[in-house]
Amino acid sequence: MRDGMKICFYKWAHGIIVLGGMEFKGMEVTDVLDDVNLEDLKKLYKEDKIAQGFFDIIAQRKRGRKVTDVNQVIKMLKKEDVKVNRQDASSLLRTLEKIGCGKYIPGRHSYRSRIEWDVSMISVGRAASGESEEVEEFDEDINDVESGLLAHSFHLRSDLTVEFELPVDFTKSDADRLASFIRTLPFDLDDD
């Protein structure tokens, strides 16, 4: 073990998943849970530092999302100085599936491993920490449902509104790159 981190690994052969020394038994990999197992969720929070950090972060969010990928988990945790790698993040998302929070989708080609939430990610964080005693259903009206994008509109001129979509985690660096690209576009110098 490094820096007090728990080692995460899986045993799939007998329907057992082991994360940070905790076992979640009795489900085949293909099982779909009808409800979130609050007992296992709270146990995960209590016994795994990576899960605890993730739950604390998502419990404080203003808006949930339908999909969370491993890179987003890593980015969130690193901002809070929680040491995490891709395997840890993927293990956490797999465990959340087993607990009944959503469907884990392994990464393929250019798609990252991710969880598609069946319930509100914010309420999962709150229930794990004991702040709430229930996990709420996922709100299908969330703006970034599948794509992770938010729609924006900009009044460029009095007679023209430009509409575009940007990632929900759009950064200053992204804005600088986009602005640099726009500056490279050819403009007609004749302003009649």
Textual characterization of the structure:
- It is built from six helices and seven strands.
- The chain is an alpha+beta fold and 192 residues long.
- It has a domain at 17-129: Arc Repressor Mutant, subunit A (Orthogonal Bundle).
- The strands form three sheets. A three-stranded antiparallel sheet has the order 3-5-4.
- A hairpin with an 8-residue loop joins strand 4 (102-105) and strand 5 (114-117).
- Helix 1 packs across helix 2 and helix 3 (70-79) crosses helix 4 (86-99).
- The termini are far apart.
Short key terms for the protein model shown above:
7 strands, 192 residues, Arc Repressor Mutant, subunit A, elongated, alpha+beta, two-stranded antiparallel sheet, disordered N terminus, 6 helices, 3-stranded antiparallel sheet, 35% helix
Please render the helix and strand layout as text:
Layout: E1 17-19, E2 22-24, H1 38-47, H2 49-59, E3 67-69, H3 70-79, H4 86-99, E4 102-105, E5 114-117, H5 121-129, E6 149-157, E7 160-167, H6 172-184
Antiparallel strand pairs: 1-2, 3-5, 4-5, 6-7
Provide a short characterization of the protein structure.
This protein has 6 helices and 7 strands, in the order E-E-H-H-E-H-H-E-E-H-E-E-H. The protein is an alpha+beta fold and about 190 residues long. It has a domain at about 15-130: Arc Repressor Mutant, subunit A.
